[in-house]
Write the structure tokens for this entry.
Amino acid sequence: MAPTVVVRLGPGAVLEIGKGSAVGHHTILDLNPDPLLGELAHPSLSIGLDTTINEFNNIRAGNAPVAIGSGCLISQFVSIIAANHGIARSAPIREQVHELPRTGISIGDDVWIGVHAVILPGVSIGTGAVVGAGAVVTKDVPDFAVVTGVPAEVRRYRT
């Protein structure tokens, strides 16, 4: 892990980084849960073996688990956000509990995520998938699919 990585570990947080994996400079690994969630928060980040997470990434796993497989490549300026605030009009945004039905992120083995991609809560990215630069992933990505766009759509499959 590069010396400029910011790691925020809250109560009950579990951070596991597999052998041979690297986390690049100025990346944020946030496992600090929202106090409004209390016991409903599950701060957890697991990174498999031989995975490279490059510089300036933002991984938010304080309220729901994020699992990143082995042999993955995550480019620069990628955001992986495992939970999101509610947006009801009955309370200010800052006072709203995170939405729980759609939380957590699972990224399979041998996945490549391109620069400036955004992975949103509740998404699973299959083994061998490729997420193109600037893609916003809002739904599950099948094994070996290549997805691009906003929102990300399957363009083809790896052969």
User: Anything to note?
Assistant: The chain has one domain: 6-157. Residues 6-157 form a domain with the UDP N-Acetylglucosamine Acyltransferase; domain 1 fold (CATH 2.160.10.10). The chain has a mean pLDDT of 94.
